[in-house]
Each structure stands twice: as C-alpha cells, then as structure tokens.
Amino acid sequence: MTTGVIDDKSFFFEPSLQGAIFPGVPESRRINIIRNYIEMYDDELLRISTLPYDVMGLINFIYSKKYKMRDLVKLLNNPNKKFNGVDGNFYFKNNMIERDLNILKINNGNSFVIN
Questions:
Q1: How far is CA 18 from CA 15, 60, 106, 109, in A?
Q2: Which residue from 112, 114, 81 is spatially nearest to 97, judged by alpha carbons?
Q3: What is the pTM of this model?
Q4: Using one digit for the tens of pLDDT, what is the confidence trace for 28-62?
Q5: Is the per-residue pLDDT at 113 higher than 90?
C-alpha cells in the first residue's frame, strides 16, 4: 500500500494494523488546511488535495522570483533545493518529485512519528 492509502484514519483502528509502521507525513503538518477547508466547504478535504496546493505554492514562488526559463530549469534540477509543502519538504530529483517522509506507527486510532 502507498502512504496515501494507509494514511487514512479508518486504518488506524484496524486491529491487525496496530503497531504497523509506514512512511508518511503526520496529519499535524496539514491540520490547518484541513480545518480551513471543512470550515469553508462543509466537507472533508480529499487526502490528495495537498498536492495541487503545493504545486500552486511552487508556481507562486517561481512567479514572485520572476525566474526566467534557464533559472527555473536550474532550480528544478537542483536536488539540494527543498520546498516546504503542506505534507513536508519536497524536491526534484531526476525529473521526479521526492519527499522527506517520516516513519509513522499506528496505535489506538492514531499515527505517531517514531523517527
């Protein structure tokens, strides 16, 4: 299972998953956007919705810096340049998005960072 699948509170109560560990990002990183979304739309935020939020933040960063194309290519090809997103830091490596993930442990309806 991927982190997006197991990072669902319904799994945190599953008896067979108690004590299970998985790579992910604690909900505390995105709790503000979840609360704001629920308040505004009276609906739950889809777990995947943090991705376009981070993309828009990156686009805003690029726009505010007024990067030219060569600067943008250099920026996105630098794996040492990390961006702070809703779900933690992310960066580009070999044209792929990588994330700094924590190791989480499931226990009694919650997940906790253990690393």
A1: 5, 40, 5, 9
A2: 81
A3: 0.73
A4: 888 999 999 999 999 998 888 888 989 999 999 99
A5: yes
Starting at the earlier edge strand, list the strands of the sheet with 88-93: 83-85, 88-93, 96-99
What's phi and psi for 41, nearest 5 deg?
Answer: -110, -5
State the DSSP H helix or E strand holding residue 57, giving kind and residue range, or none if neither.
Answer: helix 50-65
Q: Residue 22: how many CA atoms within 13 Å on its side-chain side? A: 21
d(CA 62, CA 71) in angstroms, rounded, equals 9
Q: Domain residue spans in the chain?
A: 3-113
Q: How far apart are CA 31 and CA 85, in angstroms?
A: 13
CA–CA distance, 15 with 37 (Å, rounded to integer): 30
Q: Residue 60 in contact with residue 83, Cβ under 8 Å?
A: no
